[in-house]
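Table S5 (text form). Sequence records supplied for joint modeling of the two-component complex.
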Amino acid sequence: MVNPPGHTSRDGHQWTPKAGLVAGLPTLGTIKPQSKLRSADTIYDVAIIGGGYTGLTASRDLATSGHKTLLIEARDRIGGRSWSSNIDGYPFEMGGTWVHWTQPFIWRELFRYNLLGENLEVSMSHEGGINKCIVRPFKDRPAIFLEKEQEDKISESAIKKLVDVDGQLGRTVIPLPHDALRNKEAVAIFDKMSLGDRLSEIEHELSPLERNMVEGFLSITCGGQWHDSSFFELLRWWALSNWDYKGFMEMGLTYKLRCGQSGLQRCIFDEAVMSNNLDYSFSTPVATIHDQQNLVEITGRNGEKFRARSVICTVPLNVLHTIQFSPELLPLKKQASVEGHANHVVKCHVEVAKPSLRSLGTFNYPYGKLTYAFGDGTTPSGNTHLVAFGSSLPGVHLQPEENVQETLDAWKGLLPDTKEEDIKRVVFHNWHKDEFAQGAWEWFKPNQVSKYLDALRERQGNVWFGSADWAQGWRGFLDGGIEDGQRVAKEVADHLKTREIKVKL
Amino acid sequence: MVNPPGHTSRDGHQWTPKAGLVAGLPTLGTIKPQSKLRSADTIYDVAIIGGGYTGLTASRDLATSGHKTLLIEARDRIGGRSWSSNIDGYPFEMGGTWVHWTQPFIWRELFRYNLLGENLEVSMSHEGGINKCIVRPFKDRPAIFLEKEQEDKISESAIKKLVDVDGQLGRTVIPLPHDALRNKEAVAIFDKMSLGDRLSEIEHELSPLERNMVEGFLSITCGGQWHDSSFFELLRWWALSNWDYKGFMEMGLTYKLRCGQSGLQRCIFDEAVMSNNLDYSFSTPVATIHDQQNLVEITGRNGEKFRARSVICTVPLNVLHTIQFSPELLPLKKQASVEGHANHVVKCHVEVAKPSLRSLGTFNYPYGKLTYAFGDGTTPSGNTHLVAFGSSLPGVHLQPEENVQETLDAWKGLLPDTKEEDIKRVVFHNWHKDEFAQGAWEWFKPNQVSKYLDALRERQGNVWFGSADWAQGWRGFLDGGIEDGQRVAKEVADHLKTREIKVKL
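The corresponding structure-token record, covering 1010 residues in total, follows.
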């Protein structure tokens, strides 16, 4: 570690009975001091805007291969939309959480830093305690308690009905999941469709319980509203999961890191720093990017200026349009960013003095402010940690910091026989209200894949654009961020090499 | 490309009606000129012995991160036990062939060099033509013709009986496939078992057809004899395949590269060369490795001498003991190498003027010299290319170059209604007789995993050991080679960094 980790970030909130609601959370991801810069007239080989997985991967790849690299980050920490708050040595994942060995890019990183083996642990538990899934399909009727086997049976049946558009569980639509646009005819059909369109198509095939559970599940995977969320993105995720229910659950929601995402991010960042080729400036939101052909000038909101031969912009889709580019952002990039993707979900953790809830899963769609929750771990004090996702439906869209009592009530409504004094801690990050994210992980709206994906990946002069939001494989996942980070890093390295050879000639 | 590709390697053999049997094959992997070396007194940061995937990955990772790197290779080409012969622009894969997106390390490389998309193609075809699987369980009875659905049904049923040691298809034995030794008790039980032991346990459960097909399949996956091949290694491969028959076939035998493995290898090698930090010496078999504490001296069989601060030895398990180490190779490493792994299969390609055979699959165990074959592609002349694997059973162990007529006869015996004049080309590499491989891909013998795996991965002084033969995940696969190459490269880079810091202090 370059400096002692464990500083408090401005991001996120914590509520405890004693302290009430407090902004900011401790994390391994806060970098102190916040900047390390050479002389002001330095011209960097590359400046990377944004220190999420994409920016970190690009920074590491370019700095360790000998490029004078600058990382500029708006926040006081690395990680972007995935980071963990480390409370008493226990990580609460504030954004992207789960990893799997079928996610090639993040798996390689875990292996690289020796973070496999005992560092991998399982979120959901089905042992001891309540060991039930609670479903509340009807507002005024009692909740239904399902055994694990029943839950899986109903969920699997419902999800298969949803994705089975071709009698082959979607295989013909996306035969190669990392090259999802290959079957152009099929993409054209399913990219137009919203999740709402597809749910209408199959509604007569779904039992009330099936419908309720699949909707509950979808509400937290797309994090948006049915009419506004592309069905194609679900088919893609399903294909990446081996067209299989078990794969879907295991690859998306099962294995997490004992060291937390910030632990892995710290390894990537520290390797870059150790190369002596990385400068950085945190708490530096970028205002303008001015590409002057041989040089790009970046100006921070507080007037800081940086110069580089090339720039990698990893600012999320929903935020891109807030930066002033000159020459202007390509029209399709701009339009995509102004429209934004659909996902505005809020993730919320609770610590409750009820060990029996470790094996609880619960759906609470569409009436609850928290729509889906499950036991995620046991804290050092022996309490159960559960993770939930908030509803994005109008009227019940949870903004936990605005009314923390409402959040506590939402948890109480979700957890059986739980009183307020059982709640020891609530931890969350409101991605919807976060100015540097303006949403959670990518879930495109209908038609956006066809219309914008290629344009979003396009280079513009000396500026490259990388993000999990427009990755090709596990787009919207941790893995996609690393995938696109290594893509742009390689492209920039190749470009600088060619430029160097040209200059010599 | 650093130099015009497409030279002829000394490796492999080709038979055509016109030229008869000729040693050597054209490939993108032959490097000309064969060496690029600085002054004789150069002390390299690292010398890498062996230019298969492990050595190539390590060379690229270390050279691009600024280390003075030397690659020493016994052959005249890169690739080791995986390489493709490019004949009229069509690749015949002489060793490791198939790739999949669940193989994280090779998938990242394919992505890095933009070799996905149309470069990925499918081996087996089930469209048009004969579209049958032919099985010959009885020596003196006619062959049985199966439809694809029947073949899958029988194979799946047989393989599931084989792996289902726990009522959960082996999941409890290896819950985390890239950390396969985690469940120590289970490993102890199944590592002792040979494939023969397991086949005896379930023989009463298998129908004659099931037994014949599963044995045919196993004969070419382990490439050895039942009593000599570990059952644990099958359980591990099955776990990596998501404990699923479809996964098993798709991840192991389905997708290959239009550019051939040598095409991808060339990208890795060329990136290393472009860094200007890589020297190399091909056709340079190593005789001795002498670790003198601050320096390692490597001597080639022809007396060439090289010096480096650290060495990465990627020589295959079955060959390691032929190099003289001083200090001596750790006893467990030496013993493992002298014992060797079990796989001595020979891969053999045929080009036949019978387009209908593109959709043929055929088992020919235990009587045939070629035990399993299937349509693998269509050559530029419109002929069908089939790939087969030779038997490793005593008495029928195919040595194709020793009696090429026998090889032609074996093909005729395998392919329905095929006369000698239909055979336009035979291409093969006899790994069993290859002095720098002494076997094919790794398949451990019973007890070797428990006894040797940790020792094989161990560093010895300034010498690191990397190989697909002792990788942790897809051991014995292309992916495992890249995995272990990046491991040792990172370890050496960290070591050199620490050493540098110490020297400065």
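Note: Chain A has two domains: 29-86+260-339+438-504, 124-253+347-429.
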